[in-house]
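User: Sorry, folds how?
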Amino acid sequence: MNPAEWLHRTAHARPADPAIYCGEALVCDYAGFDRQAREIAGGLQARGLVVGDRVAVFLPNRVDYLPLLFGIWAMGGVAVPVNAKLHPREVAWIVENAGARLVVAQDPEALPNAGVSVPVIASVADLQGAPQDAPVAMAARDPAWIFYTSGTTGRPKGAVLTAGNLMAMSLSYLADVDEVRPEDAALYAAPLSHGAGLYALVHVLKGARHVVPESGGFDPAEIFALAAHHRNISMFAAPTMVKRMTAVAKAGGSRGAGVKTIVYGGGPMYVADIKEALALFGPVFVQIYGQGEAPMTITALSRGDIADTAHPDWDARLGSVGRAHSVAEVAVVDEAGTPLLPGEVGEIVVRGAAVMQGYLGNPEANAKALRGGWLWTGDMGRLSPEGYLTLHDRAKDLVVSGGSNIYPREVEEALLEHPRVAEVSVVGAPDPEWGEVVVAFVVCDGAVHEAELDAACAARIARFKTPKRYVFVNELPKNNYGKVLKTELRARLAAR
């Protein structure tokens, strides 16, 4: 089914219901939202675009983002959302790789100079034409969204997500993540080009409100003010965003009034951090684990699991990413693809209705990632007997020291128990004797001695896992979605 059909149906059922807000100001109701999308579809057709054509969206969060997405789908096109903070030359490569026919960009002048040869427009209003009567039909196998990976190493890859993938992801949200009601409001503080935008679909299906902050981005004080105004706010946030919201709320005496649900994912949420957030905001948290290749839909740790402080396995569950989504099968396997026993660490594989069709024009990457009917995620983890999945690290982040495997996350968890350690990231450094040694980059709130950090590790992990070196830094390098760039940390060590 075409995702735009959900908008069309909601608009018929609840035309006067509020749809899109800019901050506190109502921009349009559902009838207006649907009309804008159909006008954009008509405008794209007037420009000569046809079913299956790709449109790149290089925009920050703004109120016309969602009408543009649904307009692309309404005419049968494929949306190519692009991280708004990329360099124009990076965007030019994505546009060419995707075979986009058109680009909508905030700054259209920069892209032609960077090598973009297709038309670039800045105003969505310039696309609007005679409204299309209704969305064109889409089959489940038809591409709808090309999701480009963050590209922290090498060129990003375009994961082709079909209409069926997006439907499975959205319906699984209702089954495994959260209920959505018309009185709810999705707040877009994280980029619409990624997870936040993917979650817009289920909120359109259920006729909820959509709130784009006036800042267009992440500002905890603004989020708290909008939550208090709109009530029943749901949002997607990276763990670093949750940590920042907790700090701002504590400093300002806020407890997040009006926040219904915070779905977090996209990076490691440390146990100490989620405990602190839970104590402040209450049971509003759900964790998801997914990838662009299986968008938002591998496992989920429920609100109940996170809030169940009396459960004897509470700490272990908080350190996990939950259990498989309803539409997913998850396994942990060895290099040959043989399933491992509960508790054994191996590579996480997933299959199901949300898994991508494949990488666009990249048979080599497809052969590596899609094997035996499974998506090989590149993430290492272990399953509990009850089916809870605990991530260790990316396979490439594993540290092998003296023949022993050391998973950075467990070292990071131990160090974060120190009250003055604010952030930490652990990597391996080449060593002539041990092969690799553990190095911890540490951000501290106040003076901390290395002996204190050694003691924190000694209380929780085996001695051979304790870092051989600590590097104290003011901040950790991160990409636009809050993920720590371990490749940059390794480069710093190499430069030394």
Q: What stands out?
A: The chain has two domains: 3-389, 398-495.
